[in-house]
Backbone:
């Protein structure tokens, strides 16, 4: 490990931990925690100059924002909440398909006439008239709430910062409504709350994120390229298939049309004998097979890959373009 190492911040607890570890494992990236499970630093087997930091999802955002980590996995909700200049500080490389949750505005179900954000204006006036104080919104998403309420033209309210069990606030009488994250809606329902019709502030999921402000030494860039190449190769493999078939050379002229129609390629060039090998999107496999059979192809087989390495990949390109 050197000062110029690539630092990757990985969730060590909470909802994202298991999925994040599985995500790296699929890409053939195995953590080695030298001093056992309580060690909060590790390395990546077979990738030199990498330091893995095991942190909470929220701490990962802090490290990415300050440049204390180069790459990290964390929720978009936390990025948008915690970094005021998110687009300048970080580059979101790719969404990861897990950790899905919505940040929402929720009010008591008993408020039957309140359905939209616009209705909150009246609620605020009512609370002021009846109790003499501002409508209170309990949340830990203070910045997301301020921005969203301002966009919707709601100004007459006060935020009550909540550090947990936010959904309990209206029942406990410490706020009238809440902004919090929800996945199944079970916690909202258990607390007799409902989401406003236009009350979804953000649809969040876990993302692979790069810090723009981290010290991107040549060694860090090289290590990041190696890591991203594996991640991209796993994704490319997952979404691609190989089709092999025995095709009469006299009919091979019909191939071009099929390749073009379905965005498929000949990874080893034009077939020399009967053996034809095609790479294509997994979603187009059966259309291509049908096309090949129309050309009289026989013994058509379809295979999936573990990894598919292309000369370049979108993740590395995106990172290097951003770093300049
Ligand atoms: N149902 C959910 N509730 C909360 N967070 C979720 C949910 N589903 C996915 N997430 C994502 O996981 C991130 C981390 O949430 P989690 O509750 O696991 O953090 P944590 O480490 O336990 O921190 P805290 O103790 O502050 O909640 C959230 O910010 C969000 O991006
Ligand atoms: O819509 P649901 O599927 O019910 O999930 C939403 C709940 O999950 C999260 O809490 P978590 O369990 O992480 O506990 P925490 O409040 O300690 O973070 C979140 O803060 C909500 O309370
Ligand atoms: Mg939590």
Residues:
């Amino acid at each position: 490990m050197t000062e110029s190492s690539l630092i990757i911040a990985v969730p060590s607890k909470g909802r994202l931990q298991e999925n994040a570890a599985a995500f790296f494992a699929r890409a053939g990236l195995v953590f080695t925690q030298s001093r056992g499970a309580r060690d909060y630093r590790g390395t990546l087997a077979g990738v030199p100059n990498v330091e893995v930091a095991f942190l909470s999802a929220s701490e990962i955002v802090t490290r990415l924002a300050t440049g204390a980590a180069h790459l990290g996995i964390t929720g978009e909700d936390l990025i948008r909440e915690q970094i005021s200049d998110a687009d300048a500080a970080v580059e979101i490389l790719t969404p990861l398909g897990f950790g899905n949750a919505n940040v929402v505005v929720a009010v008591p179900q008993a408020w039957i006439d309140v359905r939209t954000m616009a209705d909150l204006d009246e609620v605020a006036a009512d609370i002021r008239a009846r109790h003499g104080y501002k409508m209170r919104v309990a949340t830990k998403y203070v910045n997301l709430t301020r921005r969203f309420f301002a966009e919707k033209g709601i100004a007459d309210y006060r935020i009550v910062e909540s550090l947990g069990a936010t959904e309990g606030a209206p029942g406990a009488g410490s706020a009238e409504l809440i902004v919090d994250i929800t996945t199944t809606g079970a916690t909202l329902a258990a607390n007799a709350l409902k989401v406003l019709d236009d009350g979804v502030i953000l649809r969040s999921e876990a993302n692979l994120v790069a810090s723009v402000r981290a010290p991107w030494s040549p060694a860090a860039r090289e290590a990041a390229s190696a890591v991203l190449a594996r991640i991209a190769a796993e994704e490319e493999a997952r979404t691609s298939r190989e089709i092999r078939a025995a095709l009469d050379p006299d009919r091979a002229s019909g191939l071009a049309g099929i390749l073009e129609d379905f965005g498929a390629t000949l990874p080893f060039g034009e077939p020399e004998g009967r053996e034809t090998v095609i790479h294509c999107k997994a979603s187009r496999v059966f259309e291509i097979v049908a096309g090949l059979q129309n050309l009289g192809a026989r013994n058509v087989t379809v295979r999936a890959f573990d990894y598919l390495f292309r000369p370049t990949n979108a993740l590395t390109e995106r990172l290097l373009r951003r770093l300049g």
Observations:
- The domain at 239-303 is CATH 3.30.70.1150 (Alpha-Beta Plaits).
